[in-house]
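User: Before I run my own analysis I want an independent prediction to cross-check against. Here's the chain; please return only the structure tokens and, at the end, one sentence I can use as a sanity check.
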Amino acid sequence: MSEGQWWFCLKHMRVEPDQGCPNKDRMGPYATEQEAAGALQRAAERNKAWDEQDQDDDD
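Assistant: Structure tokens:
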């Protein structure tokens, strides 16, 4: 992995550099610390969009 990657740790609910918790406990990698900080929000937005798409497909 290249230097400068960032992760969002689901165990500690915080952004971590490449050296951190095991990847099984993290989301990423992200190019910037700010991108990693928004990981949960982006995941929630994507889940909502997918749920809405599933509802549209069922109609």
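Sanity check: The mean pLDDT is 91.
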